[in-house]
Write a structure and sequence with these properties.
Helix content is 23%, strand content 35%.
Length: 141
C-alpha cells in the first residue's frame, strides 16, 4: 500500500524542482539523472549557487527527506535509460512504522538525526550533495 512501482522511459521526467514531495524514490534498475542548482549554506552574499549533478543506478535512492519532514524537490530527476523505481509514500510509511512500537522508536530517533544533518548541509534530494561548483554548470563528480 505504501510502495508503488514506476516504469520510466529515457527522458521521462520523474519530478522537478519546486514540486511538493511526499515520496522517497528507490532505483531498482536502469539509470536516472538528478540535477539541481541550490544556494550554498554560509556562503558570502552574491556567491554562485552550488550545481549538483548525479547519475543514480539500481540500489540508490533519493528524496528520503520526505519520510522525515515536509519536503519540496530541490532539483529534477529524469530517466536516462529504461528504469524501474519504487516510490515509497511517506504517509503510508508512517502508518506502517507507527504500528510497530520498537520500529517507530528507532525511526523517530533516526528522523531527528537525519533532519539535523539536512539542516547543516546542502539541501538537495540526494542524501549527500556531491559537487559544489563555482563555475556554474552541471558537472558530475
Amino acid at each position: 500500500e505504501a510502495l508503488q512501482p514506476l516504469l520510466k522511459a529515457p527522458d521521462d521526467v520523474i519530478f522537478t524542482a519546486g514540486e511538493v514531495c511526499s515520496k522517497m524514490y528507490v532505483i531498482i534498475s536502469g539509470h536516472v539523472q538528478y540535477c539541481a542548482t541550490v544556494p550554498q549554506r554560509d556562503a558570502p552574499p552574491g556567491s554562485p549557487p552550488a550545481i549538483v549533478k548525479r547519475t543514480l543506478r539500481g540500489g540508490q535512492w533519493l528524496s528520503e527527506a520526505a519520510l522525515w519532514t515536509g519536503w519540496v524537490h530541490r532539483g529534477e530527476l529524469r530517466a536516462v535509460t529504461d528504469s524501474l523505481l519504487f516510490a515509497l509514500d511517506a504517509a503510508g510509511f508512517a502508518r506502517v512504522i507507527s504500528s510497530h512500537k520498537s520500529a517507530h522508536t528507532y525511526a523517530a530517533a533516526y528522523a531527528r538525526k537525519f533532519v539535523e544533518g539536512l539542516n547543516r548541509g546542502l539541501q538537495t534530494d540526494l542524501v549527500e550533495a556531491l559537487y559544489m561548483s563555482e563555475a556554474g554548470g552541471c558537472t558530475e563528480y
